Amino acid sequence: MAAEVVLYTTAWCPFCVRALRLLDSKGVEYTNIDVEENPALRKEMAARAGRNTVPQIWIGGTHVGGCDELYALERAGRLDAMLDSGQQQ
Q: Who has the most CB within 10 Å: 20, 39, 70, 87?
């Protein structure tokens, strides 16, 4: 079963675009929450992640971090397994 993927992003953020492109290239379905003009959603993101920067990414309920951490998982060969199972690798 595929893991649920949730991202908090803004449309103009280049790191958000990179993260979304990687997930799109893998055919991953995700929930993209745009925090650009919604302070309540940005506050929700900060409370969940402990960070104020975008993107913030969760896979299977596990907070991955941002774009750099997502690509680090990909380079380490751990992202696909995490996406497939929803488990931290």
A: 70
